[in-house]
Amino acid sequence: MIEKAKLMDEKAIARAITRISHEIIEKNKGIEDVILIGIKTRGIPIANRIANRIEQIEGKKVSTGEMDITSYRDDLKKLQPDPIINGTNIKFDINEKTVVLVDDVLYTGRTVRSALNALMDIGRPKAIQLAVLVDRGHRELPIRADYVGKNVPTSKQEIISVELLEVDGEDSVKIKE
User: What is the pTM of this model?
Assistant: First the structure.
């Protein structure tokens, strides 16, 4: 795989996180009843960074959780009739809360659809919003992000590679082919 361009460095990612944090606060008129849930793998550290930034801005903590949507993927056969949410760590009630799902890249929308299904098996939020670091287009489902760090038009042959310090040892967003 050949790296075509570096789209975001550490500072650009930090600015995007700050902007998304401010937009979440503004759209929700504060952070009362707002919770963040990161979609494994890289959505989790992004959600934690947003929560930390919101706490710096508002002076209040935002609850964060982790969601593994592997068993909800539509390209895998369900082995059991009842959903099992493996690797999900949500230690608070989501009912009547505004849940902000957080992921690194929005592409076809299938990951988000799976996350919505998993979330509805856990509870009934008042509202569900979506925050992504990168929106690359090519949606197959009618899903759009409420908060976007960077819009990057891509071809289907290109790959957006998000690397985060917590997972990969560095912060960058690259486009590869």
Answer: 0.92
For 83-93, write each residue's pLDDT tens digit: 455 578 999 99
Q: Alpha helices, DSSP H only, in the chain?
A: 10-27, 43-58, 110-122, 165-168
Measure the CA dihedral 107/111/115/121, to 10°.
Answer: 140
pLDDT tens for 3-28 read 999 999 999 999 999 999 999 999 99
Query: Which of the four pLDDT bands, split at 50, 70 and 90, describes residue 149?
Result: very high
Q: Which of 21, 2, 12 is nearest to 164 (CA)?
A: 12
Amino acid identity for residue 81 in this structure: P
Bridge partner list, 132: 103, 148
Nearest one of 29, 52, 19 to 147, comparing CA atoms: 19
- What pLDDT is attached to residue 70? 84
Task: Tell me the backbone φ, ψ of residue 93, rounded to 5 degrees.
Answer: -75, 130
* CB 23 within 8 Å of CB 147: yes
Indicate the Cα dihedral angle 142, 126, 68, 36, nearest 10°.
Answer: 100
Residue 176 is encoded by which pair of tokens?
């590869």
List domains and CATH numbers for the chain: 3-74+83-176 (3.40.50.2020)
